[in-house]
Write the structure tokens for this entry.
Amino acid sequence: MNDLVLRAVLQLVWLTIAGFLLNLVFGVETGLAFFGLAAAALLLYHVSNMGRLARWLEQPTPGQVPRASGAWDQLFALLYRYERVKNHDHQELAKTLVRFRQAARAHPDGVVSLDADNRIDWCNDVAEHHFDLNVDSDRGQPIVNLLRQPEFVAYIEANDFSHPLELNAARINSIILSVQIVPYGDAQKLLLSRDITRLEKLEHMRRDFVANVSHELRTPLTVLSGFLETIRELELDPQRTRDYINLMSEQSRRMQTIVEDLLTLSTLESAPSPSLDERVCVAPLLARLRADATALSAGRHRIVLEAAGDYDLLGAENEIVSALGNLVSNAIRYTPDGGEVRIVWRATSAQAEFAVEDTGIGFAPEHIPRLTERFYRVDRGRSRASGGTGLGLAIVKHVLNRHQATLDIHSEPGKGSRFAVHFSPRRLVPVVAAPAVVQEKR
Ligand code: ADP
């Protein structure tokens, strides 16, 4: 028997005894009247406290448990303690939920929690962006009503979530998502989405690259093996054999150049950034570029060097020579005989420009964004015929990136091109013995 009931029974027993004693002393009416009145008062006390309890239970406001005297006070005190513990647990739970949601919100991937009927319960900002959802207005909506791509609907319906699904983002078609459902709890699910656009692009580039390299090497290899077969099978006169061997060594040189360029690119990709300690003396560098251009042109072009500014560069000399040399050799290779190639160097303390201008074949501006891609050529036949690998400008771009320099390209078909490299002041250092402004023409 609990305390309240025991105390109520005891109170009744006391009332009965007191009524009985009054009956003995003052007669039966007085005894009965006392008992009746006291029992009614007791009943009123219990009923009113029961009413207060019932009212509180209907709307259990935390911290507002009713107070009373006597047996009910003890009961309300117990209730108050219980309510405090519950309230504390509730607050802890709410804090955990907030922390969980904050963690899910901070997650770099999209997270949508779905109930047993695949209705949206909650989602983070990334998921809102990926699926064009709104956590407030879309709560309770079936996910397939909002994500209607047939492949996603089929994925949900198949109920096999062992593999992720690739999907385009709802609003921005160019974003590729990897979407996976993870069941949890009784029948709830988490819908996770990850932006894999960059990975996909890299994968695409990797596939293209392998295909391009294979294609580039296959052509000279086919020629080589064809000639070898011919020499082995046929009785050829010595002159023809020599011609074939010459053609074969041309093809093997070509393969060698491609492989060397590929190795250069891979070294550039993996090597640490060039230091700021190495000085590249610009005057001898320009003289060397001019000499190389003259040798490559073999008198077919007018070559002009214009240089102004008493600054040297800081960086890796071999890389800078290779990048600027590529621009000069392109200008010679893509400029018909009789044209002009101008090498320009202008340096001030604020910036330096190295430019190669030519009066060559040029190209339409739409090629410019892709020109530094590996194996991209405006005219494949012409590039090959002039000994190009399609990797020169890719090397230039890498070297310039590593030296925080930029490349500006201007060109007009039939009129010529201008490739300008801009070095930042961080990469410039005054020459030790300042040379006079050079103005050379040939
Ligand atoms: P390639 O070995 O084919 O020259 P590059 O990467 O050096 O490869 O250049 C890519 C393409 O850019 C070339 O195939 C050519 O079409 C174009 N190009 C580069 N430089 C010039 C230039 N000075 N004039 C005209 N076209 C050029």
